Amino acid sequence: MSDNTDSKENPQDEAVESRRSFLKQAGVAGLGVGTASVAGLAGVAVSSGDADAAEGGPYGAPVSDPSRENLGGAPIYDRQGAFEQPILKPLKNRVLALEKLLVDKKIIAQQTMDFAVQYYSEQVGPYIGKAIVARAWVDPSFKNALLNPEHEYAPVWKPDGYPASQRGPFSATLYMKDYLDYAAGKDQLTFQWPPQGGLLGTTVGPEGEFVRVVANGNEPTTGKVIHNMVVCTLCSCYPQALLGVQPEWYKSRQYRARSVSAPRGVLLEFAESNGNQAQVQAYLRRVDEVRVWDSNSEVRFLVIPEAPAGVPLVPGTEKELVKLITRNGMIGSQII
Amino acid sequence: MDGAQHVQGYIGYGPIPNKQQQEPVYTGVNPQGKRVSPWPEKWEGTFTPCYAATATAFETGFPFPSPNGSPIKPPQNNNLDMARWGRETMQPRNYSNTSYFELWLRSIARWLQRGGWATTKELTRSRGSHPAIIDEESLNTAAQVEEMGKTEAVLGFGKPKDYSTFGGVLYPIYESPEYPEAKTDAELPQPKFNVGDKVRARLQHSASHTREYLLYRGRVGEIVAYYGLALAKYGPPVGPGQPPQIVFQPMYQKPYPDVNCKGLQDILVPLYSVKFDAKDIFGIEFVERLPSNETSETAIYADMWEAYLELL
User: Fold this and answer.
1) Which B residues 152-191 touch A at CB under 8 Å?
2) Which letter, b or e, does each residue of A42-68 get, where b requires 16 or more Cβ atoms within 10 Å of its Cβ?
3) Class of the A13-25+45-79+124-331 domain?
4) Are B262 and B84 in contact (CB under 8 A)?
């Protein structure tokens, strides 16, 4: 803008001036700077004793913390496409460059890289969670122990029961590990566990140390029918020790955004893609409460879905039952 | 950090992608007997171990595994919460246009640069047939945000009490009489709240990493569980050069992320499961209900550190 008179006659400048005035009144320092024609002027003006500084700087409230001045002050308005990201090579090539750098600098040994690939693609996967869920379906005392891990528990693989020192909020992780060892030993299941001795000793592996298990269906304590859905609304925290690598949809901003505000809509969207809308509609008619679990600490959640109606839940049939269970069902985005 | 990653409840992202992504299978247990990789593309399977192995090495020491099998003292100034903060230290507009793996790649690059494990030149120039991993401006922006985070108050701790230099980098030091840096389980803080207590999430404005998202701040919820607290204990390694085994304890053992992300301090703060009624977050008129079941309720459960909460 040239001078004051001109700016009043120019609708575009007037709009900018009016917005600046609004932001000034609103006291939004960072945004006010954003409408300035030169980035970073606010800081200069405040420190140089500009007349406006007395009433809070030229573009808004006083900046009490000087480190805030340079952040968010980049001009972002219609006529300037500032701060576009520099053009880099495709992500794939840069990931391979990172791997090379880590190995070349001996930060990570190549064998460790290979082990990590093998761990995530062969050792962990939804088959672990499915084995847990199948057992919980046929063994009510196991299910009860997973849901209420502080209660006394004496399964067949530990007839004397777990001591009080091992019973607490996250004992489910120990019960699951011991069950998997027991089942692998008895060859009841199709997988071998643990193929190479587990990475972290007595727990079920990374992202499996602090696990809470929740169950869909009737909740005896409240008499309500519950549906549980798990999300990490910030990034992608996931019970990798039990379900393996996250599916793409779980990491998507779409799922992160909507699962908290519209979990039923998310369920119905999955139903549409699965072709079982009628089943999910009927399910939602009898659900009294939808619980969304935000994985915002290191605690991870596993959902025990309801078994399909009419399927006999008989001990010894776990090998068949695991075929009915889906990964999405154990996250709570799907009804099985 | 307050930024573009807080998408909870945002409208307009469109349908959830790839809902039918095949489940990973590695043995012949699927009907076709085919192996299904957990990663749609092979390079994603390269990235995951880059992150996992780097993170493990940061927690257990370099090089990992160690050549002679002896444990190495882990570097102090790196942890997972720092990596999570690293994903957020972008211009919000750029964050919104950045893909999942790209965010992590940038975070790892900054991780390596700040820790002194790779130089800016190594990260920003092409090496042989390999392209530059990241641009210098992105690294600078991240560093700038971190500088700002270093001076900021943290819930339960206030502003930094002091600064300490480690590896030539200045780190803030936080202190709280309520939450000391416990060296033994006996020094750990006792929980102040009980199951059933009504609590309000305290307000904050964060330039560093926090797990108290905008969605929860100022909201009233109910404590439904206390997760216990214990210092992590380690036994002997599984094998030569492997990380030490964690000794099983059924209690929460991870540090308070808001301080942990600053780099030098592992402080444990009691952690609770808090139930928020969706109507207290979105308003009763906006809680999602189906016409066929109008009495159905929605609850959002978040894990909240004690310092985030005040008793009502």
Assistant:
1) 152
2) bbebbeeeeeebeebbbbbeebeeebb
3) alpha beta
4) no
Contacting residues for A80 by C-beta, under 8 A, at least 6 apart: none
For chain A, how many helices (H) and strands (E)? 16, 5
Domain ranges of chain A: 13-25+45-79+124-331
- B5–chain A nearest CA distance, Å: 6
B75 close contact with A: CB closer than 8 A: no
Phi, psi (deg, nearest 5) at residue A61: -65, 155
By the CB < 8 Å criterion, does B137 face chain A?
A: yes
Q: What is the pLDDT of residues B47-82, one digit of tens each?
A: 887 887 777 666 655 545 554 444 444 456 678 899
| Separation between Cα atoms, residue B69 and residue A1, nearest integer Å | 69
**What DSSP designation does B158 have?**
B
More confident site: A130 or B67: A130
Q: Which residues of A touch B148 (CB under 8 A)?
A: 65, 67-68, 71
A240-270: burial string, b at 16+ Cβ within 10 Å, e else: bbbbbbbbbbbbbbbbbbbbbbbbbebbebb
Q: What is the ipTM score, two decimals?
A: 0.94
Who contacts A159 (Cβ-Cβ below 8 Å, separation ≥6)? none
A79 pLDDT exceeds 70?
no
User: What are the pLDDT digits (tens) for B161-220?
Assistant: 999 988 788 899 999 999 999 999 999 999 999 999 999 999 999 999 999 999 999 999
Using a CB–CB cutoff of 8 Å, tell me whether B250 touches chain A: yes
Q: Which residues sit opposite B25 in a β-bridge?
A: B36
Cβ atoms of A241 and B12 closer than 8 Å: no
In chain A, the percentage of residues whose pLDDT exceeds 70 is 68
Other C-beta atoms within 10 Å of A275: how many? 8
Length in residues, chain B: 312
Q: For A114, which residue in chain B has the nearest alpha carbon? A: B49
State the sign of the Cα–Cα–Cα–Cα dihedral A317, A322, A324, A330: positive
Amino acid code (one letter) for A121: S
In one-letter notation, the amino acid at residue A203 is T
Q: Which three-class secondary structure state does DSSP give residue A73?
A: coil
